[in-house]
């Protein structure tokens, strides 16, 4: 869910000025709650009372939007609900729409200005229930994004000649394969050649799924590669191989072991492969081939449609379904590919395509953030690129014009900067996915180029050029891409509650400090790590998110990886921490409450009180990064009962201990000294044990340290300093009437009430 107050207070446009003039933003700690007015509290309504895992209210109240019209949505009120949507323009004119959906794709671009909107719940009998009026501003530079009526989309798709799932400029595409992309084509051909004599696999047995899923994935990949190689070269052997593989996949029982109900990913990938094969091989398919391919497709795609559009897992009602949302995107592209050849495709396109375009990403707002973690950000977006291209080629819907898609380049540039040793936050964040970062980063930038995105992609190396995301990518600008002048070294993504602070974004040897206090809490692939931080230096991990992604809902995932104690965050009484979300349970959200960025320093403040599920009365942290090598952390903690407090820090290797208040983290030549400047008397402990060991190879022990209070107390504060390179800068810390005052690097940092302020240090006489 996207925070109304975050998007309202943090305008998405002024990025360049942040490098020179400071941006100071203080946000209310209850920023998760929907319905806060532009200047204070606002009454709740039926839309704000829904479960937090349901569809969010968009646009949030007082947001400034970069897309016109913006995406309108609200929580679903249940089966049979009907809604009256009202939109009031700056001139006072009000227009109404009645719908049974909990979202609307407005049918025209809105001119710049302030708008009001509300949704009335229309019961089957009796008085309607009005929602409160919300406001948003269409910025002067907002990009138009109007989706035509589905009948127009159907006509466009059905009239597009085959092969539809290829760029429209066929000659330029083939020339690129023979020119700039010849290495990728050569590798593709070599891979297909090596498998020509290989027998096709038999339909998998029912159990166990994990043993055959990888083989299904690779067989679908082999089928697609052979079909694409034939399109590029016309070599008959490739056609024969692609056809035999596609027909074999089509022969598998769509209601058997690979049925959507048994393994949604397997059935989805088979359907996607058969749709591409049907389209790419269409010129050489006879009637029997078509009937066999379409027979399987109709069942598999129909099951996807029934579940995601009409069934219990409706994406409109529960958009933050990691598998379901991606499947919906593929369903939309398949419906465009099959339109006119399958009667059911009309229904699929009518219902799935506009919905998929609306919910392009449920994991962040227009700022481009992706709350489900950087690993899933790249996996999900990268695997959607071909479908996005198909929608552009077949129905003329260009998702590159959506605000989230355009701004996603900024998200990956700041949280997966060139030279980073790992990702940031969530499942898979510890993985060094260099090939995927390069492949998906370059393919995405070709699809939605921006100056920052082009620079970012030009810095990446190691991609596999034979992958279809690159072979089918739009032909883009080939000249070297310079670093955009004026780009800030820090960025806040308010819709997801993440901040990135770098010594120099342009420099691969940078210091990178990441802070998170997210309204998404520990939902899905996110962890119970609100108010946590990560520090990387010179391409090395120092203060790390610990643990390994050894699988979803494994013992290690549940008992360590997902838990607060696995992160650089606060726990108490022996590792107790924040709420870990389970289906139907508490979300455990955090909130960014302050952000200040200047050329010399950055501040990010968060409130994680709600994340502890009622166990704490206060859990506030401010992180101050003074470029290039000082990081100050201040925690304010309180509870109804006395607690033993734990300030956690994690590293890849054993930390060198110089007493109970100071330790050194080392990784190669890079070091980070952590010193507890103020707070309770503590003892430092460390261990290399996980509460549940990860299952897999190349998962060596890591080290988990904690500054633990020696006495129990109902409230406490920690003031900690982290020195990159273990510098010897003089530091002084003294109590102040409201908190603490720290003098360092020629500055005075005031820490009080969950906030931080930096000023020049007073001149000494």
Notes on the structure:
Strand 11 (498-502) and strand 12 form a beta hairpin. Helix 7 (264-280) packs across helix 8 (287-310). Residues 1-37 have low confidence and may be disordered. This protein has 16 helices and 30 strands. It is globular, with a radius of gyration of 27 Å. The strands form six sheets. It has a nine-stranded antiparallel β-sheet with strand order 1-16-17-18-19-26-23-22-21, with no helix packed on it. Strands 2, 4, 5, 7, 8 and 9 form a six-stranded mixed β-sheet that branches. The chain has a five-stranded antiparallel β-sheet with strand order 10-11-12-13-14, covered by helices on one side. With 765 residues, the chain is α+β, with helices and mostly antiparallel strands.
Give a quick account of the main beta sheet: strands, pairing sense, barrel closure: 9 strands, antiparallel
Provide the number of structural domains: 3
CATH architectural category of the largest domain: Distorted Sandwich
Label the structural class: alpha+beta
What is the overall pLDDT average? 91
What is the β-strand count? 30
| Low-confidence segments | 1-37
Number of helices: 16
CATH domain topology of the largest domain: Beta-galactosidase, Chain A, domain 5
Fraction of helical residues: 25-40%
Strand neighbour order, sheet with most strands? 1-16-17-18-19-26-23-22-21
Task: State the end-to-end distance.
Answer: 53 Å
Comma- or semicolon-separated keywords:
Immunoglobulin-like, 30 strands, 9-stranded antiparallel sheet, Glycosyltransferase, 6-stranded mixed sheet, single chain, Beta-galactosidase, Chain A, domain 5, 765 residues, alpha+beta
């Amino acid at each position: 869910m996207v925070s109304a107050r975050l998007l309202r207070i943090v305008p998405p446009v002024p990025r360049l000025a942040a490098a020179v003039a400071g941006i100071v933003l203080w946000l209310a700690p209850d920023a998760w709650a929907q319905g806060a007015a532009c200047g204070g509290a606002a009454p709740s309504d039926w839309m704000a009372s829904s479960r937090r895992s349901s569809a969010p209210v968009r646009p949030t109240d007082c947001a400034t939007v970069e897309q016109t019209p913006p995406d309108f949505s609200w929580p679903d009120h249940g089966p049979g609900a009907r809604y009256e949507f009202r939109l009031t323009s700056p001139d006072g004119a009000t227009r109404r729409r009645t719908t049974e959906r909990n979202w609307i794709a407005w049918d025209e671009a809105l001119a710049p200005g302030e708008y009001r909107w509300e949704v009335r719940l229309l019961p089957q009998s009796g008085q309607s229930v009005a929602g409160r009026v919300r406001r948003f501003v269409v910025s002067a530079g907002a990009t138009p994004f109007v989706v035509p009526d589905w009948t127009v989309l159907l006509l466009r798709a059905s009239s597009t000649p085959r092969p539809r799932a290829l760029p429209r400029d066929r000659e330029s595409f083939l020339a690129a394969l023979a020119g700039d992309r010849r290495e990728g084509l050569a590798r593709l051909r070599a891979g297909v050649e090596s498998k020509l004599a290989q027998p096709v696999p038999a339909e998998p047995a029912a159990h166990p799924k994990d043993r055959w899923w990888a083989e299904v994935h690779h067989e679908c990949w082999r089928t697609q590669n052979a079909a694409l190689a034939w399109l590029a070269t016309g070599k008959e052997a490739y056609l024969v191989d692609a056809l035999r593989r596609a027909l074999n996949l089509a022969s598998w029982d769509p209601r058997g072991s690979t049925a959507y109900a048994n393994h949604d990913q397997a059935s989805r990938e088979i359907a996607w492969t058969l749709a591409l094969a049907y389209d790419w091989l269409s010129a050489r398919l006879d009637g029997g081939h078509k009937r066999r391919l379409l027979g399987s497709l109709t069942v598999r795609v129909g099951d996807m449609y029934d579940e995601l559009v009409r069934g219990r897992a409706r994406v409109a009602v529960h958009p933050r379904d990691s598998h379901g949302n991606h499947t919906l995107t593929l369903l939309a592209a398949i419906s465009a590919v099959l339109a006119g050849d399958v009667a059911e495709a009309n229904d699929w396109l009518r219902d799935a395509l506009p919905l998929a375009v609306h919910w392009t990403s449920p994991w962040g707002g227009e700022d481009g953030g992706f709350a489900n973690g950087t690993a899933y950000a790249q996996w999900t977006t990268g695997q959607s690129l071909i479908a996005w291209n198909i929608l552009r080629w077949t129905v003329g819907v260009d998702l590159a014009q959506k605000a989230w898609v355009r701004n996603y380049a900024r998200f990956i540039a700041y949280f997966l900067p060139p030279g980073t040793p790992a990702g940031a936050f969530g499942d898979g964040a510890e993985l060094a996915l260099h090939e995927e970062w390069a492949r998906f980063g370059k393919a995405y930038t070709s699809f939605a180029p921006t100056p920052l995105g082009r620079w970012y992609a030009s810095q990446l190396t190691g991609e596999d050029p034979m992958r279809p995301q690159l072979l089918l990518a739009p032909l883009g600008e080939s000249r070297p891409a310079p670093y955009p002048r004026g780009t800030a070294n820090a960025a806040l993504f308010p819709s997801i509650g993440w901040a990135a602070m770098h010594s120099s974004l342009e420099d691969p040897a940078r210091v990178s400090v990441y802070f998170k206090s997210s309204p998404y809490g520990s939902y899905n692939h996110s962890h119970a790590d609100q108010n946590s931080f990560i520090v990387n230096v010179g391409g090395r991990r120092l203060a790390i998110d610990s643990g390994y992604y050894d699988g979803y809902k494994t013992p290690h995932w549940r008992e360590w990886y997902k838990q607060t104690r696995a992160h650089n965050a606060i726990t108490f009484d022996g590792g107790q921490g924040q709420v870990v979300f389970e289906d139907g349970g508490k979300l455990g959200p955090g909130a960014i409450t302050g952000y200040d960025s200047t050329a010399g320093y950055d501040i990010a403040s968060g409130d994680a009180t709600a994340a502890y599920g009622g166990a704490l009365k206060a859990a506030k942290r401010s992180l101050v990064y003074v470029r290039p090598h000082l990081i100050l952390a201040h925690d304010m903690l309180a509870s109804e009962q006395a607690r033993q407090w734990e300030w956690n820090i994690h590293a890849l290797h054993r930390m060198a201990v110089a007493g109970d208040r100071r330790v050194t983290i080392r990784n190669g030549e890079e070091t980070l000294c952590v010193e507890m400047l103020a707070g309770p008397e503590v003892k430092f402990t460390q261990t290399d044990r996980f509460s549940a060991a990860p299952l897999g190879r190349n998962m060596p022990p890591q080290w988990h340290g904690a500054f633990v209070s020696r006495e129990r107390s109902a409230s406490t504060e920690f003031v900690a300093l982290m020195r990159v390179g273990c510098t010897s800068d003089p530091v002084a810390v003294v109590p102040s009437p409201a908190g603490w005052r720290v003098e360092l690097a020629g500055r005075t940092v005031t820490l009080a009430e969950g906030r931080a302020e930096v000023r020049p240090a007073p001149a000494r006489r």
